[in-house]
Give the backbone structure.
Amino acid sequence: MADSENPQEDISVPPAFEGGIEVAIRSRELSYSPYSSFRVGCCIQTKCGKYISGSNVENASYGASICAERTAVVRAVMDGHTDDWACIAISGDSLQQCISPCGICRQVLREFTNPKTFPVVMLNGDGTKRRLMTLEELLPDSFGPDDLHHTA
Ligand code: THU
């Protein structure tokens, strides 16, 4: 249920996601973000309960920076997890508002998930504000792996 005083807030996040939420918040401490000073942490939780964390890693050539979500995606794939993700939780440094994943990260998450059902938990810096959306809500009518198999 959305909080009427703060429509961004939605605390109806399943209890099973609490572990991943904690990991996402703590992962901000490993952020390398000297240019933006905006730390982001995230956690992909697998269906068997494994936590795969990520943080944003910036670069002096700003465009070479990588978001927390993509850090976690790369780690998940390298750990052999490509098709068993339960959810992702993301925490940004703002206390006022929940972070929302960037467009590139939405597309990268799309590669390994069923967008219709994959839950994205968006958090503020301490987890007191929470939003829950499916990836499809964040990235409607998306292009994915199956779309490559329908050539003429
Ligand atoms: N950032 C993320 O890590 N994830 C997002 O979803 C949005 C933005 C990072 C990129 C950059 O290091 C910093 O936040 C400021 O944009």
